[in-house]
UniProtKB/TrEMBL annotation:
One of its GO terms (molecular function) is L-iditol 2-dehydrogenase (NAD+) activity. Coiled coil: none annotated. This is Sorbitol dehydrogenase. It comes from Candidula unifasciata. Transmembrane segments: none annotated.
Length: 350
């Protein structure tokens, strides 16, 4: 093999067995583009597949390439591709649905049962030098939007979708529970949508500091497992309950607190995914008409996320705290496992 033909790739063989290996460079099929990968962010789910070998019913049964928060340069066009050209800089929306089922046809393609999502078993991700993807799930980046920002459109899209489902609008008070990367993108999108006050909870002081830096108006350090105590602390800080709560920790006491801390007639959006079965104050939610809504990833949110970043209305740059080269991906994953920083980016291009 010629050196320039090599395709260094991060492959998860099974739990705790992440290897860097050379694979062939893939060729694009009809409607696809070959991509020279640039930046790939590490997501909590990538780390979880590595440390646990599974997330719920998604089990790593065969070697799987990790990575799904990515940007790239188009290096080859498959037959029929007219929307992109070689050299275009793109953000990659990692999930490609079937396009023909009822969910797809009605626009809720994130719910498609045939979804092929990068680094969700059995589908490969894109933490590699080269990768092939459907051209219509690649979004051209303006010159002034960096590859790191392009990769960050993935978590940002989760924030766009969650705040859409929550109905965040002008003048709302919004509670964001959990200040990990997903909580942080929800702070950014809630603010951009006109929320007048965003209050953020976490059990970790360092994460709350970052929340403040990116625009949270109030922060509450959670120190009790009693959800009513936490909800009261939130209400004390706001002077009232929140109009909308976006739960981004998945922790049971936090979901409970989100319900108690939301105004009657308000909305709680469940973003965090923790235990399968959680005890919740459903009578409290029921008699106060607090709507509880789930979200799953996003649909039709990449263009919005890109427009917000390109216009400067949302600044995601400060989320990146660590940078590694593709060769050092295992080191990058070790840093992520230790819980260091916020977003760890891996540079794949040279
Ligand atoms: P993360 O683990 O980095 O962040 C979670 C944060 O919650 C941490 O800062 C943690 O300290 C905090 N926390 C823990 N217990 C808490 C409590 N009782 N009260 C308040 N805060 C508490 O994870 P992340 O990458 O930010 O993702 C957040 C969650 O969103 C995860 O559960 C992830 O699986 C989920 N997620 C869901 C979707 C979806 O489509 N629904 C998409 C992406 C991520
Ligand atoms: Zn479908």
């Amino acid at each position: 093999m010629n050196m320039s033909d090599l395709n260094l790739t991060a492959v998860l063989y099974e739990q705790d067995d992440l290897r860097m290996e050379e694979r062939p460079i893939p060729e694009p099929g009809p409607g696809e583009v070959q991509l020279k990968m640039q930046q790939v962010g590490i997501c909590g789910s990538d780390v979880h597949y590595w440390t646990h070998g599974r997330i719920g019913d998604f089990i790593v049964k065969a070697p799987m390439v990790l990575g799904h928060e990515a940007s790239a340069v188009v290096s080859k066009l498959g037959p029929g591709v007219t929307s992109l050209k070689v050299g275009d800089r793109v953000a990659i929306e990692p999930g490609v649905p079937c396009r023909v089922c009822n969910y797809c046809k009605t626009g809720r393609y994130n719910l498609c049962l045939e979804m092929k999502f990068c680094a969700t078993p059995p589908y490969d991700g894109n933490l590699a030098r080269y990768y092939v993807h459907a051209a219509d799930f690649c979004f051209k980046l303006p010159d002034h939007v960096s590859f790191e920002e392009g990769a960050l459109l993935e978590p940002l899209s989760v924030g766009v979708h969650a705040t859409n489902r929550a109905g965040v609008g002008l003048g709302h008070t919004v509670l964001v529970c959990g200040a990990g990367p997903i909580g942080l993108v929800n702070i950014l999108t809630a603010k951009a949508k006109g929320a007048s006050t965003v209050i953020v909870t976490d059990i970790d002081e360092a994460r709350l500091k970052v929340a403040k830096e990116i625009g949270a108006d109030h922060v509450v350090k959670v120190s009790s497992r009693d959800a009513r105590v936490t909800a009261q602390a939130i209400e004390d800080a706001l002077g009232d309950k929140a109009d909308i709560s976006i739960e981004c920790s998945g922790a049971a006491p936090s979901i409970q607190a989100a319900i108690y801390a939301t105004k009657s007639g308000g909305v709680v959006v469940l973003v965090g995914l923790g235990q399968e079965i959680v005890e919740l104050p459903v009578v409290n939610a029921g008699v106060r008409e607090v709507d509880i809504r789930g979200i799953f990833r996003y649909a039709n949110c990449y263009p919005t996320a890109l427009a917000m970043v390109a216009s400067g209305r949302v600044n995601v740059k400060s989320l990146v705290t660590h940078r590694f080269q593709l060769e050092d991906s295992v080191k990058a994953f070790e840093a992520a496992k230790r819980g260091e920083g916020i977003k760890i980016m891996i540079e794949c291009g040279r």
